[in-house]
Each structure stands twice: as structure tokens, then as C-alpha cells.
Amino acid sequence: MERWGTGSAVKKSERIRRLDERLRAAGVLHLREAAEHLDVSEMTVRRDLATSPELFSYFGGYILPAGSERASGYRLDVELDAHAEAKELAGRAAAGLVERDDTIFIDCGTTTPWMIDHLPITGRLTVITYAMNIAARVASRPNTSLILLGGLFHASSQTFSGEEALRSLERLGISKAFISAGGVHAQHGVTCSNFHEVPIKQAVLARAGIAYLVVDSSKLDKIKPAYFARREQFARLITDADAP
Q: Which stretch of DSSP H or E encloses residue 81?
């Protein structure tokens, strides 16, 4: 791990510069990771963040670029009707990969909810999610257990984030994960609009037995601000072209 010496030996201006540099490379940083990178206490990092609101935002234990939630411009209610037919086709194709006793993770967004009406209704399916719009639809399904990851609520995307959600994921097994994205690019990887979603997406990718990327075709060759994965981390890319 890269170290820069003790906190007293590094000026605040230099810490902020290095933190900004690291954040630009990573997209999102946990407070603990930032403290270890700078070799200072988490309280020192918090104080540095407070003096630099033009550079940093802080949500639920994570450091983001300043105004990243506002800058993303993403609102679930606005995106809901865009490319609706393509989203339904992609969601239906993804649901076809689910077996009756699977434990699956369903990501947030406006494409993955289309999976729910096509999931198996026999057996004992378990659905894990951090998205309210997914949870609300799963809750009324027969023979389906719902695990909703909690934390700080983000109204624009109807999702939760933070340490609570990540700790819960550490205790869960996931047979199949269905991950959404705002952009899929051959060179620049898989991206989304909201930085607070990145840690959960990455944690799910690390734990899932198999992961599928579920997007409508309008997301192909697009790049959004928050990078979270390489295309090769997914067993399959599912779009509206895959629907029966």
C-alpha cells in the first residue's frame, strides 16, 4: 500500500491534492481507504473534506467528487418511460436465466424491474436488492423471499447506500446477479450515473456466483461518470436483442 508519511509531516494542501488525485482515478473512495492512503486518521480526512466542499462530497462513509449526485442528472421517475419497450424485452430475457430456487441480486434502475413479472413463481426464490422500486414489486410475489439492503436513502434513484448495506452483503450468498448500467463501452468499461451505487455493485460482483449485465440497447457505446466494472467481469451482456 502506498504511504505518504505521518499526518504531521504532510501539509493539508498536499493531502487534499493527493486525495483529489486518488479520487479522480477511483471515482469513489471509502473514508477508511482515504485515511490509509494518506497515512492519517479518519478524523483528519473528515476535516480536510470539510474545508474543500468545492472538491469533495461525503455520503454514508464514502467520498465522492463534489456535487456528483446533482451533476449526474439522473432521476428514476424521468428515466422510467425512456426506451420502455426495449427495457421490457431486456428484463424478460434476463428473467429467463433465473431458476426456481436461486438466490439472486437485482440491481436498481428502470430496466431490471421488468424482470420481476417473469420470474419463477414455484420453488423458493430469494431476491436481494437495495432499490425501493424493485423491493415494492417483489414484496407481493408468491414463494419469494425479499432481502432489502438498508442505509442512506437516495430519492433520485430510489436506492440505499452505505456501510450497513455492504456489511449485509458480506453475510449473503448470491447465485446470480443482474446488474444494471447507464453505459457500456468496449474501451472504457461499464459505468453508471450515481457514484453511491458503485461500492454495492462492486461488492455484489465480488460475491456472485455468476453476474449478468442487463441494459437496453440505448446504453451501448455510452459512458457515464461513475465507472464500476470491466465488461469481462460479466458472463453475459443481456439487451433487448436477446428477448425471445
A: none
Number of domains in the chain: 2
Q: What angle do CA 182, 186, 187 make, to 5 degrees?
A: 105
Residues 18 and 131 in one domain: no
Helix (H, G, I), strand (E, B) or coil at 3: coil
Same domain, 91 and 148: yes
Q: Where are the alpha helices (DSSP H) in the chain?
A: 12-26, 31-38, 42-50, 68-72, 76-79, 84-95, 132-138, 163-170, 198-207
Domain of residue 33 covers 7-66
| Residue 209 included in any domain | yes
Residues 164-177 have pLDDT tens digits of 889 999 999 999 99
For 184-203, the pLDDT digits (tens) are 999 999 999 888 899 999 99
Please give the mean pLDDT across all residues of the chain.
85
Which residues contact residue 70 at a Cβ distance below 8 angstroms, ignoring those fewer than 6 apart? none
Q: Collect all residues with Cβ–Cβ distance below 8 Å to 178 and sequence separation of at least 6.
A: 94, 104, 105, 106, 107, 112, 115, 211, 212, 214, 238
Nearest-CA neighbor of 173 among 132, 126, 137? 126
Asked if residue 236 and residue 207 are part of one domain, the reply reads: yes
